[in-house]
Description:
Two copies of one chain form a homodimer.
Chain A: E1 15-18, E2 25-26, H1 27-38, E3 41-42, E4 45-46, H2 49-58, H3 60-68, H4 77-91, H5 99-106, E5 113-114, H6 118-125, E6 130-135, H7 139-149, E7 155-158, H8 159-162, H9 169-178, E8 186-190, H10 193-201, E9 205-209, E10 231-233, H11 236-242
Amino acid sequence: MSAATPDTPTGGIKVLAFDIFGTVVDWHGSISDEVNALNLHGRGGRVDGGEFALAWRAGYQPAMRRVMSGELGWTLIDDLHRMILDDVLQEFQITQLTDVQKQDLNKVWHRLKPWPDAVAGLLRLKTKHIICTLSNGNIGLLTNMAKRAGLPWDCILSAEVFKAYKPHPSTYLGVAKVFDLPPSDVMLVAAHHEDLAAARACGLRTAYIERPLEFGAAKIKNVSPQAGNDFHSKNLTALADILDCA
Amino acid sequence: MSAATPDTPTGGIKVLAFDIFGTVVDWHGSISDEVNALNLHGRGGRVDGGEFALAWRAGYQPAMRRVMSGELGWTLIDDLHRMILDDVLQEFQITQLTDVQKQDLNKVWHRLKPWPDAVAGLLRLKTKHIICTLSNGNIGLLTNMAKRAGLPWDCILSAEVFKAYKPHPSTYLGVAKVFDLPPSDVMLVAAHHEDLAAARACGLRTAYIERPLEFGAAKIKNVSPQAGNDFHSKNLTALADILDCA
Lengths: 246, 246
């Protein structure tokens, strides 16, 4: 049988492409911690880091839509994060930060911490597969994050390479094209069903990763399985078990 | 002082961007060995692997010039290598290869072996710097090569990302832009003075690496220092010494 119609569910998968924010790293916990450490004050007194993180992240999809609709020209996530940060600081009525401090806070996205299973899981998955990022984060952000966190990518792919943001098909199909493979030899690994559905529509295989704490302990995420995904896994070491990576 | 005007020659260098073919891997030796093992026959009897390698590589710069002049649309190195291979097979009057064998031979560029010092040197350089490729090779080629050879890149950058081939300024300046750094915080490491000169014209720092055997033992390369480079080094472990990387 050809690689596109494998004998087994795990057969023929050559490249694992990973969503990053929420799937591999804990954006909510990392940002909460840094914001709490800054001891910011605004509108309602001391700023809650968790609420700040949620507000910042809430601006993410709308900002990317402005780019993909053509309202904004091609803009890196670093710059979109800064635009959203300025809005959130205004919304929270936080005035105590200098511009240098804002620039540094914006780089918190380069310093996001991996979920506890991520590095161990990736090291195992890497023994049998090419492992790469497929994130809307820019290349510099993803490289700084990987170096700091010890994420052992074989290759860093990003919306920046394809000049399109997920869920645009150019991103998913771009991974297959980079490696000169049929889309079914590539599997997207993500904690977000919409991302996986868009990848599946392009012919990629899909693995859902449960991240119930993505939005913090106060807002537990529903991580129920959905039909259509090839695999449903608790975390990345469990995915290594499923894919039989020692 | 600012990073752009460092106190010391090695100060402020944050990213090391590496040329690959000839600098990090031995294209001539790797291709010679594979071609000799194929035991090809043509025009003058048994084909000499070293001569075949030189002929293949000789088509490289002209092919890229056809892309950069606009005569050819954007074309990946894998495809340029295949076009040149077909010409070389004809020139050598080699008719014994099937199309599948030609496809496999073309992928020898994904299997090039590192110079003996490369992996050890990169591991040391990586402790203090972001280390990335800056090659005209495509991303898939560079990723396959790195995985096979154990080249520990933090990030794989390629002409494919910038849609321009070196020595176009977009490639050198592209590295600085990806990492949001002034060009002087980036150093190109290469075994080719023209590549280094083009990088220097863009404001990057430069390190020349001696590779006297790049074209094989029968055609020793002049590796004399040239003015203008920040560093001149025997190999990558010697560069790690110079840059004080333990």
